[in-house]
Write a structure and sequence with these properties.
The complex is a heterodimer of chains A (about 150) and B (about 140). Chain A folds into 2 domains: about 100 residues, Orthogonal Bundle (Arc Repressor Mutant, subunit A), CATH 1.10.10; about 40 residues, no CATH class. Helix content of chain A is about 65%, strand content about 0%. Chain A has 8 helices and no strands. The longest helix of chain A is centred in the N-terminal third of the chain and has 17 residues. Chain A is elongated. Chain A starts with 8 loop residues before the first helix and ends in a 13-residue tail after the last helix. In chain A, about 25% of the residues are buried. In chain B, the strands form 2 sheets. Chain B has a 4-stranded mixed β-sheet with strand order 1-4-3-2, covered by helices on one side. Chain B has a 4-stranded mixed β-sheet with strand order 5-8-7-6. The radius of gyration of chain B is 16 Å and the shape is globular. Classes of the chains: A mainly alpha (about 150), B alpha/beta (about 140). At the A-B interface, α1, α3 and α8 of A face β2, α3 and β6 of B.
Chain lengths: ~150, ~140
């Protein structure tokens, strides 16, 4: 069975394109009805097919992508409110509630915890690396590696 | 009694390129990315839904571990496509195949029905290859 022969390949390609559109444009105001129109599906059919492939509706998938991208921003220097709007949410309350529901902690505590971890890594990176690997790399032989220059 | 696999390696030719492949194309999550001096970093990733398995993207270069001859041999074998690094599973192999192909991943074999189920094979940026199979490959039903 070649790639061209598997069942309803054109349907897969349309759904995959829609998913990749969400991946690229998550930060914008995405009208999921437009996506289903562009994929030449009725809204109902589109949602059903999308969910059958990705395990969640396009709306839920978009939310998950936005929260995932927000986590990456919060691991940097981005503030909670900037992260919220940067990934496409219009309301800080909605963002915080959804973030907590998906990630399991509030955005602010997530950011603080990550910042503390980064500080620990900066001070003593070897404590985050299995010692067997550190030994193989020769990193244990040089204590200067505790605070490497980056 | 062994309880689980915690850390494993994939030998790669270039960590920057491997980062792009595994994170941006395959969608793996970065667990650790710790600079350990010039041109050296401790880089581990996990499959999206398997956060407790760390995969070390282990660069093959001349070092304490890899003398010149060993490094040269290993690099040659990786480039030759000798090393199969395991089976990666997904909910829908056809959709995953279409997405990875659109992202430029090189497939050795498109989704193909074998006696053990549907399987595709693809290569990473170094030359290591993986089998891609649906989670329920022991009775896959097409999603559409």
């Amino acid at each position: 069975m070649s790639s061209e022969q598997y069942p309803k390949v054109y349907l897969y390609r349309r759904i995959v394109q829609a998913k990749m559109f969400i991946d690229r444009h998550y930060a914008e105001e995405i009208d999921l009805e437009n996506i289903s129109d562009e994929a030449y599906f009725s809204k109902f059919h589109f949602i059903r097919l999308f969910k059958s492939i990705y395990g969640k509706t396009p709306q839920k998938y978009l939310q998950a992508v936005r929260i995932e991208k927000a986590q990456l921003l919060l691991k940097g220097e981005t503030s909670v409110s900037d992260a919220c709007f940067a990934v496409g949410f219009q309301s800080l309350t909605t963002f915080s509630g959804l973030f907590k529901k998906i990630v399991g902690e509030a955005p602010s505590s997530f950011a603080a915890r990550h910042k503390a971890t980064q500080e620990q890594i900066r001070k003593s990176p070897l404590t985050f690396i299995p010692r067997c690997y550190a030994y193989q790399h020769g990193w244990l032989e040089n204590s200067n590696n505790e605070e490497p220059e980056v | 009694m062994i309880t689980k696999m915690t850390v494993t390696n994939i030998h790669v030719l270039n960590q920057d390129s491997a980062f792009d492949f595994y994170v941006n194309k395959l969608g793996f999550k970065v667990v650790d990315d710790i600079p350990m001096g010039p041109d050296t970093r401790w880089l581990t990733v996990s499959p999206p839904e398997q956060p407790d398995l760390q995969i070390v993207l282990f660069p093959v270069k001349v070092s304490k571990m890899f003398p010149q001859e060993t490094a040269d041999s290993l690099i040659a074998l990786i480039k030759k496509g000798i090393f199969g690094c395991g089976v990666l599973t997904c909910k829908d192999v056809f959709a995953t195949y279409e997405e990875l192909k659109a992202k430029g991943v090189e497939f050795i074999k498109p989704p193909t029905k074998e006696f053990y189920g549907t399987e595709a094979l693809f290569k990473d940026d170094s030359g290591n290859y993986f089998s891609l199979q649906p989670l329920d490959n022991f009775g896959h039903e097409d999603s559409i």
